[in-house]
Amino acid sequence: MGFRLEGIFPAALLPLLLTMILFLGPLMQLSMDCPCDLTDGLKVVLAPRSWARCLTDMRWLRNQVIAPLTEELVFRACMLPMLAPCTGLGPAVFTCPLFFGVAHFHHIIEQLRFRQSSVGSIFVSAAFQFSYTAVFGAYTAFLFIRTGHLIGPVLCHSFCNYMGFPAVCAALEHPQKWPLLAGYALGVGLFLLLLQPLTDPKLYGSLPLCMLLERTGASETLLCS
After folding, report:
1. pLDDT digits (tens, 9 = 90+) for 97-133
2. Which residues form the CAAX prenyl protease 2/Lysostaphin resistance protein A-like domain (predicted)?
3. Is 174 a catalytic residue?
4. Which among 6, 72, 104, 157 is annotated as catalytic?
């Protein structure tokens, strides 16, 4: 289930670093538009008093601690080890995120109940949210399988909850559009380049999840070697 001490420090740091590289463009955009938000984020990391304030904020606890921990525990630590021996790692990586995406459909009920928008726009928004949560779920499933740790997916989930979906449209209309777009492109390029090296299983010790499989296929070789 990803609870082990072997390789825990690289498992905590490297997947988070990889995710921050992917968000290079949005981080640049945040530093340009809302430097106070980025400063506040650094203060939370560095200042004990800021941590104390955050721990008394239920919305912060929900978004940054409770949701990442419980969702990764259920959809990665519990579900993946059950699916992988039956389907193989490749199909499991893409099946779990579908359940993860559907689990966010409760937002539809909330929006319909409070009439926050038209029915059509609510369902379009839900379809979009399902799509990107499914992609994100596949990414954290990949991290879980490659590292054999739960801590990496949890920290990446918390970071992505903090950042939100990249504001690409705002970047296209930004006064500093070209540097921002270069940051977006550089972040995606570096992410793809470093995805395999920074999740190399050798950095994290043995992989219990990979060992569940008695057969070896192309997808298992890609994910576990």
Report:
1. 888 777 767 667 777 677 666 777 777 777 787 888 8
2. 60-163
3. no
4. 104
Measured CA to CA, the distance from residue 90 to residue 104 in angstroms comes to: 23
Residue type, 164: G
Q: Is the dihedral of CA 9, 11, 160, 56 positive or negative?
A: negative
One-letter-per-residue 3-state SS of the chain? CCCCCCCHHHHHHHHHHHHHHHCHHHHHHHHHHCHHHHHHHHHHHHCHHHHHHHHCCHHHHHHHHHHHHHHHHHHHHHHHHHHHHHHCHHHHHHHHHHHHHHCCCHHHHHHHHCCCCCHHHHHHHHHHHHHHHHHHHHHHHHHHHHHCCCHHHHHHHHHHHHHCCCCHHHHHCCCCHHHHHHHHHHHHHHHHHHHHHHCCHHHCCCCHHHHCCCCCCHHHHHHHC
pTM of the entire predicted model: 0.83
Q: Which of 12, 27, 6, 13 is nearest to 160 (CA)?
A: 27
Count of beta carbons in the 10 Å neighbourhood of residue 218? 9
Catalytic residue of the set 71, 72, 149, 157:
71
In the residue annotation, 104 being an active-site residue is answered as: yes
Q: 9-18, 56-65, 103-112, 161-170 — which is least confidently predicted?
A: 103-112
Q: Residue 199: how many CA atoms within 13 Å on its side-chain side?
A: 27
Residues 138-168 as b or e (16 or more Cβ within 10 Å = b): bbbbbbbbbbbbbbbbbbbbbbbbbbeebbe
* Amino acid at site 100: F
CA-closest candidate to residue 88, choices 224, 206, 225 = 224
